[in-house]
Amino acid sequence: MAFVLPAEIGHAPYAAPVLSTLCNHFARVRIVAIQQKIFPDISEDAWLLFAEGCGGRTDSLELSIIEKFVPSSQPPAPNKVVSMKAWREEGHRLRKFLLPESLLATYQELSMRQGVNRFADLADVGIGYVSGANDFFHLRPSEARFLRIPDSVLRVTIRKAEQLPDVAVTRKVVREWLGRDEAVLLIDLKGITEPPASVKRYLESEVGQEVRKGYKCRNRSPWFVVPDVRVPDAFLSYMSGKRPVLVRNEAACVCTNSVHAVRCKCARGVRDLQKAWGHLLVDLSCELEGHPLGGGMLKLEPREAANIRLPIDGMELSAKDRTALTDAVTLMRKWRHYA
Q1: Mean pLDDT, to the nearest integer, of 53-65?
Q2: Helix (H, G, I), strand (E, B) or coil at 285
Q3: Which residues, other chains included, contact 249 with Cβ-Cβ below 8 Å and sequence gap of 6+?
Q4: What band does 246 get if pLDDT is binned at 50, 70 and 90?
């Protein structure tokens, strides 16, 4: 059996049952991971699957890692064999095994050192709210003034990762957004049974009559209350170029599902998390735990962000380990076509 598959077979949750089933029904299962795009005109990367010996079973996956697809009468020979046990221990992700053995071993060894924690052990990472109608529920300051929407029902929000500064969302940053009349004011009516008259007029407007028919709005009660509006301790970018950013929330902003909401759950504060976030081990962990989105972007789902390793107490690296981590990060960014 042979298939062209999306490269998500190397990291997506659905890969686990697919590859497990194949290994339980074929004597040999081989994945050909191809670094350069087979189809250069689309953003999707593609890998190849070969399986033979129907009716048999295997406890390992053969992995052929090649730079470029070249047509041939036989599939490329495997240059790595990954046991199903090792695959399961690495979160059912073949993506990690794209690294040479020595580089993966360095990552695994550093990840086990004292003081290195999974992000999930230090903080909760989740998506922000889903309004169901962003253009309706988010206003510019000038619009809020025109509509006479009171400040008591308005919350400053992070609508997209591009808003995030490098270190912290401060009140000064918020004043700059408002001064530029950006649409960063969320109408938050949670806990309000009787909206103010001006808000009622807006909700009953022609646009409001249409918005309430949308899927999200018509399936919640009342339709105008946006759920899951919370103030996190920090924000984590959902999609990134070079690397994700972790930004303190000093201005008590909320956020949409375009960024992740981070809430500390231990004695460590956000500043400690940010200090650890700048470590080279974190750069590689983001590459291995996250996944390519297309166009060179790196995407971090909440479950992937939870597995990122943070040296929370700091960790000095030997020259050898620093070189290994740098080489590994460079290689993984090459696999996601980040220039």
Answers
A1: 97
A2: helix
A3: 168, 169, 231, 232, 233, 234, 235, 270
A4: very high
Give CA–CA dist 224/133, Å, rounded.
Answer: 10
Give me 89's structure tokens: 């221990």
What is residue 42's DSSP assignment? S
Q: How large is the greatest C-alpha to C-alpha distance in the chain, in angstroms? A: 74
Using CA atoms of 114, 16, 257, 289 in order, give the dihedral in degrees to the nearest 10: 30
- d(Cα 74, Cα 328) in Å, to the nearest integer? 30
How confident is residue 275, by pLDDT bands cut at 50, 70 and 90? very high
Strand duo 154-158 + 254-255: pairing: parallel
Contact between 23 and 15 under an 8 Å Cβ cutoff? The reply is: no
Give the pTM: 0.91
Neighbours of 241 (CB within 10 A): 13
State the average pLDDT for the chain.
95
The predicted structure's pLDDT at residue 268 = 82
Residues 6 or more apart whose CB falls under 8 angstroms from that of 56 comprise: 25, 26, 27, 28
- Distance CA(298)–CA(301), nearest Å, equals 10
Residue 106 belongs to what H/E stretch? helix 101-111
DSSP strands (E only) in the chain: 2-6, 26-34, 46-54, 60-66, 80-83, 116-118, 123-127, 138-139, 154-158, 168-169, 185-187, 234-237, 239-240, 246-249, 254-255, 259-264, 291-294, 297-299, 309-311
Q: Would you state the structure tokens that stand for residue 178, as one six-digit string?
A: 């408002």
Strand 26-34's sheet: what is its strand order?
Answer: 2-6, 46-54, 26-34, 60-66, 80-83
Q: What DSSP string describes 63-95?
A: EEEESS----SSPPPPSEEEEHHHHHHTTS-SG
Q: What is the pLDDT confidence band of residue 95, given thresholds at 50, 70 and 90?
A: very high
Give the span between the Cα atoms of 224 and 221, in whole angstroms. 8
- Domains of the chain, first to last: 2-98 (3.40.50.150), 118-126+232-335 (no CATH), 130-218 (no CATH)
List the one residue out of 95, 101, 102 whose CA is nearest residue 35. Answer: 95
